[in-house]
Write a structure and sequence with these properties.
Order of helices and strands: EHHHHHEHEHHHEHEEHH
Distance between the termini: 12 Å
CATH class of the domain at 18-30 and 102-271: Alpha Beta
CATH superfamily of the domain at 18-30 and 102-271: HAD superfamily/HAD-like
Mean pLDDT: 86
Pfam families: Hydrolase
Strand order of the largest sheet: 3-2-1-4-5-6
Radius of gyration: 22 Å
Structural class: alpha/beta
Protein name: Pyridoxal phosphatase
Largest sheet: 6 strands, parallel
Organism: Lactuca saligna
CATH architecture of the domain at 18-30 and 102-271: 3-Layer(aba) Sandwich
InterPro entries: HAD-like_sf (IPR036412), HAD-SF_hydro_IA (IPR006439), HAD_sf (IPR023214), Pyr-5-nucltdase (IPR010237)
CATH topology of the domain at 18-30 and 102-271: Rossmann fold
Number of strands: 6
Number of helices: 12
Shape: globular
Length: 280
């Protein structure tokens, strides 16, 4: 829009274009109990479907999660081959989703933010859809990057792309040379983030990333994302903001609403020289 003095209207802008969200233990609290049940289902799958000795499962499950981001990715790295959909059906399909209730507070917060909002989860599409449905957030996000997005069927595995250690994560980076690679792409590995950026057309330095995992947060920071650790109010290395709950977004990041307030109050009009339209 042009004005008589030649100035163009200066629409206020934000440092962010996109808000990128994890799902589990981020959009709802760890206290919901879903994660505990998910771990139980994973262990049952390992015993009942993969014939792994029950006494070894708890430690093995924890180690694979630490080294590979998800137990599933670790199992494939060790040579266990199974159907992805069957695994997700067993692990996520039996979750007590009734533990999750509609969250009108979060829904209002998300709808009040004038930015692109995208989901980025290691979970499968059906699980993400069910969680969003239960929380009443189905229409809050314009795109979903999930397991199927990162691991399309019949994909050609690039053996030159390392997936076995987390860049910058001390506990596992030391053993990156000895761990076998997994064909599964997932957080917290950098290639999963880069793939998500391409799929959702995300500019990292203009994006704010919300996740409950410090490993995911630390990798995200290395890729250029601004980071918000959810579920912990203590800031750690790689964390720009820390929220005890996703409901604390407005208190912790009031700048996200500055654009809304400027547009609402019309303060941006002060940046315009003369507000008389040119009659063409």
């Amino acid at each position: 829009m042009e004005y008589e003095n030649g100035y163009q209207q200066q629409i206020p802008t934000s440092k962010y274009e996109c808000l990128l969200f994890d799902v589990d233990d981020t959009l709802y609290p760890l206290s919901s109990g879903l994660s505990t049940q998910c771990t139980k289902n994973i262990r049952e799958y390992m015993v009942n479907k993969l014939d792994i000795e029950e006494t070894k499962v708890p430690e093995m499950c924890a180690t694979l999660y630490r080294d590979y981001g998800t137990t599933m990715a670790g199992l494939w790295a060790l040579g266990y081959e199974f159907d992805y959909d069957e695994y997700h059906s067993f692990v996520h399909g039996r979750l007590p989703y009734e533990y999750l209730k509609p969250d009108p507070v979060l829904r209002t917060l998300l709808h009040s933010l004038p930015y692109r909002k995208v989901i980025f989860s290691n979970a499968n599409e059906a699980h993400v859809a069910e969680v969003l449905h239960r929380l009443g957030l189905e229409d809050c996000f314009e795109d979903v990057i999930c397991f199927e997005s990162l691991n399309p069927k019949n994909q050609i595995i690039n053996s030159d792309s390392p997936k076995s250690s987390v860049t910058g994560y001390d506990d596992v980076s030391k053993v990156s040379d000895v761990l076998p690679e997994s064909p599964i792409v997932c957080k917290p590995f950098e290639n999963a983030f880069q793939q998500a950026f391409k799929m959702a057309k995300i500019t990292p330095h203009k994006t704010l990333f919300f996740d409950d995992s410090i490993r995911n947060i630390q990798t995200a920071k290395l890729t250029g994302l601004s980071t918000v650790l959810v579920g912990c109010s203590q800031r750690k290395k790689g964390v720009d903001y820390a929220l005890e709950s996703i409901h604390n977004i407005r208190e912790a990041l009031p700048e996200l609403w500055e654009l809304v307030e400027k547009l609402k109050d019309g303060r941006y009009s002060q940046e315009i020289g003369i507000e008389t339209r040119v009659q063409a």
